[in-house]
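Final report, closing paragraph on structural work. Over the funding period we assembled a curated collection of sequence-structure pairs, and we close with a single example.
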Amino acid sequence: MLSAVGIALVATAFLAGLTGTWSPCGFSMVDSLGRGTREGRPAVTVAACLAFAVGAVVGGAAVFVALSALGSLLGGGDNRATLAAFAVATGGAAAELRGLRVRPQIRRQVPEPWRRVLPLPVAAALYGVLLGVGFATFVLTFAVVSLAAISVALGDPALGIAVGAAFGAGRALPVVVLAPASRTSWAARGLELMAERPRILRGFRAADGLALAAAALALAAGPAWGARQMASSGSDPSVSNHMFAYDAGHGGGVLRSGGRELRLPGSDPAVGAGFVAWRRGDVVTVLNSHTKATVSRRIRGVDAVAVSRRWLAWRARRARGERIGVTRLPAGGPARRVASIQGAARLSRPELDGNRLAYSVAGRGGSRIVIANLRTHRRRIAVHSRRSQLLQPSLRGPGLLYVSIDRCGQQLVLRRRGRERVLLRGRPLSRTDAGYEPGHTSQGSGTGPCPHRSEGTRSMLWTTALGRRWAYVTLIRPRFAHSGARILRVRR
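Its predicted structure, as stored:
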């Protein structure tokens, strides 16, 4: 499912493809593919049009997915790259709306001999690939160049496929409509208007500019503060090397590994060091992904698990409160209690990295993130705050990822060797007041707790996972539970 940014970019690509019809190659394609109709062989024209459409879509998808893959390798998709994509979209929109000449221009045309030496459907397919590429012949709109740069900046191959296919479809549509009807008066009149009325081309370029402006606005608003969507419906991510797992709701877990997506026979999955764990009711199962051996354990009240090479950890809820326990793998053994709370306090789900276990404790006196060494039995408070809620930590090496929420906003924070970096920012969960009304002086009115006024948001940052290159976070709407949850990722 495409995001608002994806929809805007796909619409821009389709309009840019339509605009390309005004190139010399566009007019020649209508004439070349309509040859079968003029010679009394309409079936040949239909076959050629189908081949041309397929070639255009394939050519567009291939180019834009390659650009997106290049952007992914270069580290695209982070906040700086999104800002660059916004600048490109804004500049392209301004150039199109002003009607500036496209420079530098590509003045090559498609090879003319193909239509004479090759069967028409074969030649049409090759012509379609060249026109779908977008840069093999004349470029009539800045939207083509802008979309290419944006694809590199965002570095999302799935979005690149959608954008390229939409561009190819836009290039093919006028040709496949006009070529079979080349002997009719309305088709001849349409081509005449296209050739003689520059205002029509100017109108299409203006539409390209408006579509790019919409894409710029979507990039500025960005899904969850510029992060990339990893799963449109899911929560509680867990990542370890090549494995990624999350809860898809309705009692089902999903595991992605090696380019495949598998449904797990339980919920709340976790991965770590080649192991996969999930729960089904009060039964927790751990699978060794290499040997396929499984270990099961019944834990009353369990609702979250974590796994590493040597340990299985869980959170269990009881009538008197919550507790976090662990046991050794693979043989199991007696459970060991690591933390427990009662009353209004809350424990986060546990997170494991080797022998280290991380969890957060939130209560009336503030919140803290604790890291316990299960081998040495030592523990330390990594972060503490009396004003902010510190939630849902994740560990990987020296990195600690967690969510911080206060009255002024939300943050996804990466802490590494004592230094903190904010990966994502979001609006507060309730409306904030700057201390004075807009348009009035702030003199004598005092200041509010927050430097800026905000209307607040219904979306909340929640569970996290920390990978080698990416940080993951669940974005939930608390009133809708799993049905309103999605997983986002941002470069760490």
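DSSP finds eleven helices and 25 strands in the chain. The longest helix spans residues 42-73. We thank the funder for supporting this effort.
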